Amino acid sequence: MKKYISKKVEYEKFIKEMKFKIQSAQIKVAISVNRELLEFIKQWYKYWSKDSNITKQIVSQIFQISWGHNIATMSKIKDLDVQDK
Q1: What is the phi/psi pair of residue 28, to 5°?
Q2: How far, in Å, CA of 25 to CA of 23, rounded?
Q3: For 9-24, what is each residue's pLDDT tens digit?
C-alpha cells in the first residue's frame, strides 16, 4: 500500500510539473506571436503611411482585404522604400 501511495504522489508531482511546463510554453508562444504581429503592423503602417493619398484609399479598403493577405504582402517587402522605385 505504501508503494501505491508513493507512486501516486510521484505521479501527481509529475503531472503538476508537466502542466506548469506546458503553461509556460504557451505563454512564451503567445508573447512571440504577439511580437511578430506587432512587427507586421508596424511594417504595414510604415509602408502605407508614406503617401497620404494611398493612406486615405487603403483605409477605406482595409476591411475588404484579408489580414492574411496584408501579412503575406508585407512579409515580401524587405525595403520600405520599394514604393518609391
Answers
A1: -60, -40
A2: 5
A3: 899 999 999 999 999 9
